[in-house]
Amino acid sequence: MGCLQSKTAHFLSPDEPSSQPDTIKPDPGNGDQAELEHCVPAFKEYGLNELMKATNGFSSGYIVSESGEKAPNVVYRGKLDNNLLVAVKRLSKQSWPDFQQFVAEAAGVGKVRHKRMVNLIGCCAEGDERLLVAEYMPNDTLSKHLFHWDKKPLPWEMRVRVAYNIALALDHCSAEDRKIYHDLNAYRILFDEDGDPCLSSFGLMKNSRDGKSYSTNLAYTPPEFLRTGRVIPESVIYSYGTVLLGLLSGKHIPPSHALDLIRGKSVLLLMDSSLEGQYSNDDATKLIELASKCLQSEAKDRPDTRFLLAAVAPLQKQKEVASHILMGITKSTVTPPTMLSPLGKACARMDLTAVHEILLKTGYKDEEGAENELSFQEWTQQVQDMLNTKKFGDIAFRDKDFKSAIEYYSKLVGMMAVPSATVFARRAFSYLMNLQAELALRDAMQAQVCIAEWPTAFYLQSLALSKLGMETDAQDMLNDGAAFEAKRQNSWRV
Predict the structure, then answer these.
(1) 55, 156, 235, 456: which has the highest count of C-beta atoms within 10 A?
(2) Which residues are in coiled coils (predicted)?
(3) pLDDT tens, 26-61?
């Protein structure tokens, strides 16, 4: 699967070591786990202001919870100052009144790292806020792909892969003495940029390690919880069985009904009709039998995670095929730019103060045929009015009076026979400072029309797209700007 840093892609220049996130040092003898720990940022405590900035003040537009704001604990997409994409889960103080206990528990969960988990990389406990920070998964939940698909149902081989990967993650949790996983269900399984299924680390967080404190949104809770109000490690196996039922049937099905069908030798009636022709009856029967074992009412009769792995592993028949191909999704790959100018770096970290300073310093020197001033062919009163309008716009831009700058530059655009890329760029930034990202994007695109391969235009588009929450497109624009930057540098060297 390669380095998991691509899960949370960020753009950093190699000459800025201070902007690199801290990472856990790898153990050269530990294979994949060492690679994982080298790529995933080390667990840390974040400040509330930092996470508010990352989520645009916990904006509703940044919510990624499938239930939206109705979810008991809302999850937001966010981007940190180093351009790291993250998921931020906002919990209630009532569930974690003791902030020290919360931080200690989160730090413990943060140590449980695995390539098939959505790894926890931080937390925050300030005032009434209790926040968890994890890797960002761009390709939705199993629930979305299994029960609410748009284009095509999840194929059989991918469903088997989900079953195996989640068993792998649960087995790792068990080995790390995190044997109780709360609320294992299709919402807790997410797909990374490669389309690989991963188990959310959020399910390991609970303010009681012994299973006494447990809340669930599941329709099908483990029998022992209904009897005693407690969950135990074997409860996780029961919940895994309900996930298998969903994978097999493509719908929510009560375990009791499923067991009745199995006992009645009508096992294939459980199967999702959209999977017809994709599996052998023998493989389907084996997976149904495994679900049956997991759903036993007595905890002692259920298998352990090692058994799950041994049972599912032989059912994988296309291990060499990448998950994103099986799912029919476009793999989201991001290659960090090899070189970013100071403006590119400022846009990457969304440092608007630095962007403004650089635009001021650059002036109009990138305009073709002029150093620091627009050129005109003849001197007329109209030209004088244009120069005055430009002057007033530049003064307003310099003084950070961005509303006035927009007014003057808008007037200037209407007066000019030949559009100015710099004027569009400055007005784009002014729109950004007035929280009008869509208009900023439009002007940055106009600047690109004026000068087709102008890095500044691409960098400003990236900044506007980031403000609009369009992270993938923003990263593409940053890459394009860096590519034209490199092309320009190479042409100067020739």
Answers:
(1) 456
(2) none
(3) 333 344 554 555 477 889 999 999 999 998 888 887
- The CB density around residue 422, as the number of other CB atoms within 10 Å, is 24
Q: What is the pLDDT of residue 361?
A: 84
Q: Are residues 326 and 423 in the same domain?
A: no
Q: Is 183 a catalytic residue?
A: yes
Closest CA to 247 of 275, 282, 216, 218: 275
Q: Cβ-count burial of 308 within 10 angstroms (0-12 exposed, 13-18 middle, 19+ buried)?
A: buried
What pLDDT score was predicted for residue 299? 94
The H or E element that residue 184 is part of is none
In this structure, the chain runs to a length of 494
Q: How far is CA 349 from the centre of its chain?
A: 17
- Can you list the residues of the chain whose pLDDT is less than 50? 1-31, 34, 38, 207-211, 213-214, 217, 333-338, 369-378, 491-494
Rg of the chain on CA atoms, in Å = 27
Domain that holds residue 395: 342-493
Q: In 3-state terms, what secondary structure has residue 275?
A: helix
The one-letter code for the residue type at 16 is: E
Query: Quick one: which of 108, 3, 19, 98 has its CA closest to 350?
Result: 19
Residue 403 CB contacts under 8 Å (≥ 6 apart), including other chains: 430, 434
What pLDDT, in 10s, does the model give residues 79-100?
888 888 999 999 987 888 888 9
Structural domains in the chain (count): 3
CATH number assigned to the domain comprising residue 235: 1.10.510.10
Task: For 307-349, give the secondary structure using H, E and C.
Answer: HHHHHHHHHCCCCCCCHHHHHCCCCCCCCCCCCCCHHHHHHHC
Report pTM.
0.63
